[in-house]
Amino acid sequence: MWSLEEKKEIAKIGMTGALAATVATSFFLKNRSMKRLHVGAGAALVGFSLWHHFLYQGKKERESKEKEIAQES
Asked: Which residues contact 65 (CB under 8 A, 6 or more apart)?
């Protein structure tokens, strides 16, 4: 579907957009709908940040983490 480089770029764009939405809505927190949008944008920022982080993990690190999880189960 998408290459690793494309996924990294999409994650960066998503983080930028979510951060911009979080900052923009922070000025209007007295409005109930803006407060909800602010919380949603913050959650999206966390999600894109986690995705971005995991895209930069090496293949060996992922395999070793998967083995650790399998051994714990």
From this structure: none
Cβ-in-10-Å burial (0-12, 13-18, 19+) of 48 comes to: buried
Domain region containing 14: 4-72
- Across the chain, which distance is largest between two alpha carbons, in Å? 49
Q: How confident is the model at residue 62 (pLDDT cuts 50, 70, 90)?
A: low
Q: pTM of the entire structure? A: 0.76
Looking at the structure of the chain, the number of domains it has is 1
54 membership: H or E segment, kind and range: helix 32-55
Distance from CA of residue 59 to its chain's centroid? 20
H-helix or E-strand spanning residue 44 = helix 32-55
